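FYI - complex with glycine, inputs then prediction.
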Amino acid sequence: MKILVIGPGGREHALARALACDPTVTEVHCAPGNPGIAAVATLHDVDPIDGEAVAALADALGVDLVVVGPEGPLVAGVADAVTTRGIPVFGPSGAAARLEGSKAFAKEVMAAAGVPTAAARVCTTPEEAAAALDELGSPYVVKDDGLAAGKGVIVTESRDEALAHAAGCERVVIEEFLDGPEVSLFAITDGRTVYPMQPAQDFKRIGNGDQGPNTGGMGAYTPLPWAPEGLVDEVLRDVLQPTVDEMARRGTPFAGLLYAGLALTSRGTRVVEFNARFGDPETQPLLALLDAPLLPLLLGAATGTLADVAPPVWKPGAAVGVVMASAGYPASSSSGDVITGVDAAEAVPGVHVIQAGTALSASGDLVTAGGRVLAVVATGGSVAQARAAAYDGVAAISFAGAQHRTDIAAGI
Ligand code: AMP
Ligand code: GLY
């Protein structure tokens, strides 16, 4: 089997690495990839958002499956361009990826499917926004309707700040505040059959103790020993299956990875957001614990035959990923800072490093090239053991201005 993975980041490195381990996989290709992915795949300099270019590359390589990683290409319809050429693709059509591409659309689908989520108002003028803020109350939650790399949402007790964020966006969704811990629950689906993965937790804010602005995610771990018994069955029944069924009913079936961001509130489980792809960085620890070949699941989802594939099973123990970000993130990022210690980190038992915003300099050094630079991922017998190993790995890596949280998976 030949596989083409589309995307530049950590999620794609984790996917390419898992696929490269599969004995039935003969070639892994990636566009555009990064230096970490180059160790397990052949890289191609193709714009991941250009559907025609991606489809032409898949055709030329004769691949059996294209895996589209990030939301940008999915929302832009890259999966559709690949499907048109008769090549199986893991990732929803552009129409189905609207579940992530428009928060207002996601709310509409959830309402139709009876999926529990925060009360919300869609606003396009400052007057509407002000009225919605007053109706739904503080803490205020204001979300840019469109894609914003995890940075389009603010949660604040300041009405002025909430209004200012709304004014900076064309269309916003203003929501009721959801209390309680957050859980990321991913499901692989072919548009009918839905296989949930093990729950994970992501740390969205830049600072320890969940302080500071939202990021794409600064670390993650799985499983969640504290999660209520029956959570996965409940979410499959009340969230994932009804959403997949509603998308099919609309004639825009969702096939790929449905990511439910959940809040376990005092009034029950609520959907915070849907994403249309593997989450980053949750995918890194999740794939480290997957105890089944990834390829049959992805291929089953891509070809409408998921029911013929065994559901995913998980290794015992736990996995933790800690993200190291470059100076300035999330407001900006720093490029060209030389990264040392990746090999030393990987010498720590149970540790591997997943690269995201990295590049090779003209002189061949590994350097920073984005906000989230890499994730140090470790497995262990428990969350605490995996966490200790991950932080030993982090301690081995350095680059100018490196930032990481020190409380990922702490106290679990
Ligand atoms: P989203 O992009 O919708 O996942 O929002 C990013 C982050 O903002 C979430 O992971 C939450 O931490 C926070 N957030 C979003 N919606 C709410 C809400 N209704 N109540 C509380 N926090 C929220
Ligand atoms: N970890 C959050 C996301 O992938 O959107």
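The chain has 13 helices and 23 strands. The mean pLDDT is 96.
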